[in-house]
Each structure stands twice: as C-alpha cells, then as structure tokens.
C-alpha cells in the first residue's frame, strides 16, 4: 500500500518532485497499488464487455498512468481529475509522451465538484478515498461528502471500482450502503502474518442504484 499523507501541501510537494523526475528522466513515478491493480480493473471492464466509448472518470488520477493503460486497451472517453495542480501537470506530460490525446485532465477537488463532473458510466478510485479518510479535519464528514459527490458524478446503474488499503469490505459496504449496491469483490494479493492469512488491499465493484 502506498504511504498516504493527510496534508494537501505534502501531496503537491510529492507530485512536484515526480514532475521534476519525469522532466529529467521520463519516469512517471509510482503506480499506486502496483501494476496488478490496473490489470485487475481493466480485466473486469473487459469481462463485463463495458463499451469502449463509455465515459470513465479516474478520481485522484495522480500521474495518470491508469488512464494511459485504459487508452491502450481501447477506451476512448477518459477523464482524470486531481486537486493537485502538480499532479495534473505531471499527467499531462505523461499523456503527451504517450500521444494519448483522447484523455481529458482537470484540476478538480472531488469533494467540491464542478457541475460538469456528472453523467459518467464508470468511476474509478485507487487510494483517493483512503487519503481523504486520513484527513485530520473532520474525516467522517469528508467521507460522507465523497459519497454525495460520487452519486452526482456517476449515472444511475453506473459502476464504481474502488481499491483501498485502509478499509475492509464490511466497512466499505457500510460506507456506501446508501445509493450503491455491491456487485463483486475482486481478488487481491494475500499476505501471511503470524500464521494468519489476510488481504492488505480491498477491491470492490459497486453499482449506483
């Protein structure tokens, strides 16, 4: 699981460092939850035969690498948002390097979304809810606002793919009990500690009611 921080300024600083690194050596930086997490998402979309022109929103896109992989898999209607301008700058440079002109990128705070952030067929979150949950300034209210924002961003019957290292399946089912139903738990790597086997990452697919 990535090391998460609750501070907006530390996120910006981290993405500024990654932006400088990309400009220096062309390395886009860390892939959150590893490459297998992206493969898991893309395989599920393909298994469900989700149309390639479905509108997809990547919430907290960071370096935008997930969107690049989706574009390489044939998806054509892709949007990434992040509240960090440095993250969006970085993802724009990664997009340019890969020649993926069909990816839209915006500086946007998901907790105070603009009116145009609506009507998506698919929303994807790899770690953004985790980061919001660590905010020391009223995290419970922020999680409730996250669910409200998700309800306005996602079409009825749209899919929400969530990857988390902070929350168990049961906790997430409770968090999204209003407005969403669980469709599937996706397999994630197991770990063994003290003779007990568990999952360090939870990956769930919800459908908006």
Automatic annotation (TrEMBL):
Gene name of the encoded protein: Eef1akmt2
CDD domains the UniProt entry points to: AdoMet_MTases
Ranges where the Methyltransferase domain occurs: 55-184
UniProt source species: Lophotis ruficrista
Catalytic activity: L-lysyl-[protein] + 3 S-adenosyl-L-methionine = N(6),N(6),N(6)-trimethyl-L-lysyl-[protein] + 3 S-adenosyl-L-homocysteine + 3 H(+)
Record keywords: Cytoplasm, Methyltransferase, Nucleus, S-adenosyl-L-methionine, Transferase
Biological-process GO terms, alphabetical: methylation
HAMAP family: Methyltr_EFM4
InterPro entries: Efm4/METTL10, Methyltranfer_dom, SAM-dependent_MTases_sf
Entry GO CC: cytoplasm
SUPFAM superfamilies referenced in this protein's UniProt entry, alphabetically: S-adenosyl-L-methionine-dependent methyltransferases
Identification of the protein by name: EFMT2 methyltransferase
Cited Pfam families: Methyltransf_31
GO MF annotation list: protein-lysine N-methyltransferase activity
């Amino acid at each position: 699981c990535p090391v998460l921080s609750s501070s907006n300024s530390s996120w910006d600083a981290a993405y500024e460092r990654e932006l400088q690194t990309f400009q220096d050596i062309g390395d886009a930086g860390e892939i959150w939850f590893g490459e297998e997490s992206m493969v898991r998402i893309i395989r599920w979309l393909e298994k469900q035969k989700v149309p390639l022109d479905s509108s997809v929103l990547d919430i907290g896109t960071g370096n935008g690498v997930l969107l690049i992989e989706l574009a390489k898999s044939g998806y054509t209607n892709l949007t990434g948002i992040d509240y960090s301008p440095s993250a969006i700058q970085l993802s724009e440079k990664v997009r340019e390097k890969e020649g993926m002109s069909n990816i839209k990128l915006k500086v946007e705070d998901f907790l105070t979304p603009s009116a145009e952030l609506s009507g998506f067929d698919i929303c994807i979150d790899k770690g953004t809810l985790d980061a919001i949950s660590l905010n020391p300034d009223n995290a419970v209210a922020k999680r409730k606002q996250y669910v409200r924002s998700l309800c306005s961003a996602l079409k009825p019957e749209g899919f929400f793919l969530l990857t988390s290292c902070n929350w168990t399946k049961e906790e997430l089912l409770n968090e999204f009990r209003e407005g969403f139903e669980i469709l599937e738990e996706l397999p994630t790597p197991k770990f063994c500690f003290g003779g007990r086997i568990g999952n360090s990452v939870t990956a769930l697919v919800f459908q908006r009611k």
